[in-house]
C-alpha cells in the first residue's frame, strides 16, 4: 500500500488522477463536510486545498488538458449537482448543471468538448450528454442527448471517444456508438455482457478496449471481496 494522500485518520474518498499525475480527492479533515484537495501522485508536498464549502463534494473527472476538475456537490435542498473548477487562476467553481434532479458521475470526452453524466431527471436514472462550455456559467452548453435506453448509470467514454459505455439497471454493460465534433450524434445502445458491479466507480476501460471491473462474486455474502494492489501505477500515466 502506498502513502496516504492526506496524513491523519480522516478517510480519503473519490480520488481521480490527471494525465500529469495530480490526484484530486475528498477529505473531511478539520471537521469539514468533505472538501477537495490536490496532491501530486508520489509527491512529498502536503495536499493543497482546491474547493471548500459547507457541502460534501466528490471529484468526478479531469478535463483532458488538465485545466478543469469536474465534481459533484450534495446540496440537501437540491440533491447532487455538477460543478467544474479551473485548477489555475482564481479557482472559482462554475456550475455545470444545477437542477432539482440528482446529477453525478460527470465524464469528459477525450476531446474535452462533451460531458457524459448520470441523472434521474426523468424519474429514473439515465445517462445523458451535454456540451462543455467553460467560458460561460453554467458551463453546460445548450443541448442534451439521452444516451441510455430504459435506464442506465455510471458512464465512461472509450479512449478514442467513439463510444460511451454505461451499466443498465439490470447490470448489463451497454455500448453506444457516438459521432462528435462540432455536433453530437449518439447511436443505438447495444448490450455487451452482464456484470455485478461493486462500488461508486466500479469500472474503467483501457485504451485497447478491455474492461477493468470491480464485481461482486457469486458468494459475496459468505466471503469478503478481494483487494487488488497495483504497484508502480504512476508509470502507466506516461504511456
Mind sketching the topology for me?
Layout: E1 12-17, E2 22-27, E3 35-40, E4 48-51, E5 57-62, E6 68-75, E7 79-86, E8 94-97, E9 103-108, E10 114-119, E11 126-131, E12 145-146, E13 153-157, E14 163-167, E15 172-179, E16 185-186, E17 190-194, E18 203-205, E19 211-213
Antiparallel strand pairs: 1-2, 2-3, 3-4, 5-6, 6-7, 7-8, 9-10, 10-11, 11-12, 13-14, 14-15, 15-16, 15-17, 18-19
Write a concise keyword list for the protein shown above.
4-stranded antiparallel beta sheet, disordered N terminus, mainly beta, 5-stranded antiparallel beta sheet, 239 residues, 41% strand, Neuraminidase
Low-confidence stretches: 1-5
Global Rg: 18 Å
What percentage of the residues does DSSP assign to strands (E)? Answer: 35-45%
Characterize the largest beta sheet: strand count, sense, and whether it forms a barrel.
5 strands, antiparallel
Amino acid at each position: 500500500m502506498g502513502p496516504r494522500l492526506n496524513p491523519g485518520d480522516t478517510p480519503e474518498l473519490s480520488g481521480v488522477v490527471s494525465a500529469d499525475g495530480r490526484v484530486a480527492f475528498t477529505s473531511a479533515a478539520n471537521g469539514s463536510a468533505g472538501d477537495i484537495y490536490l496532491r501530486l501522485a508520489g509527491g512529498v508536498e502536503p495536499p493543497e486545498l482546491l474547493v471548500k464549502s459547507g457541502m460534501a463534494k466528490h471529484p468526478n473527472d479531469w478535463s483532458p488538458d488538465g485545466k478543469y476538475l469536474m465534481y459533484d456537490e450534495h446540496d440537501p435542498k437540491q440533491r447532487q449537482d455538477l460543478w467544474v473548477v479551473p485548477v489555475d487562476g482564481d479557482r472559482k467553481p462554475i456550475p455545470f448543471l444545477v437542477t432539482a434532479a440528482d446529477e453525478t458521475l460527470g465524464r469528459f470526452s477525450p476531446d474535452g468538448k462533451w460531458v457524459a453524466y448520470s441523472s434521474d431527471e426523468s424519474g429514473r436514472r439515465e445517462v445523458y450528454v451535454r456540451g462543455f462550455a467553460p467560458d460561460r456559467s453554467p458551463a453546460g452548453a445548450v443541448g442534451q442527448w439521452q444516451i441510455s435506453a430504459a435506464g442506465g448509470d455510471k458512464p465512461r467514454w472509450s479512449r478514442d471517444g467513439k463510444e460511451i459505455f454505461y451499466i443498465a439497471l439490470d447490470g448489463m454493460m451497454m455500448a453506444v456508438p457516438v459521432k462528435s465534433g462540432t455536433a453530437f450524434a449518439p447511436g443505438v445502445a447495444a448490450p455487451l455482457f452482464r456484470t455485478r458491479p461493486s462500488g461508486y466507480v466500479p469500472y474503467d476501460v483501457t485504451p485497447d478496449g478491455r474492461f477493468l471491473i470491480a464485481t461482486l462474486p457469486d458468494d459475496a455474502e459468505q466471503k469478503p471481496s478481494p483487494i487488488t494492489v497495483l504497484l508502480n501505477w504512476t508509470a502507466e500515466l506516461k504511456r
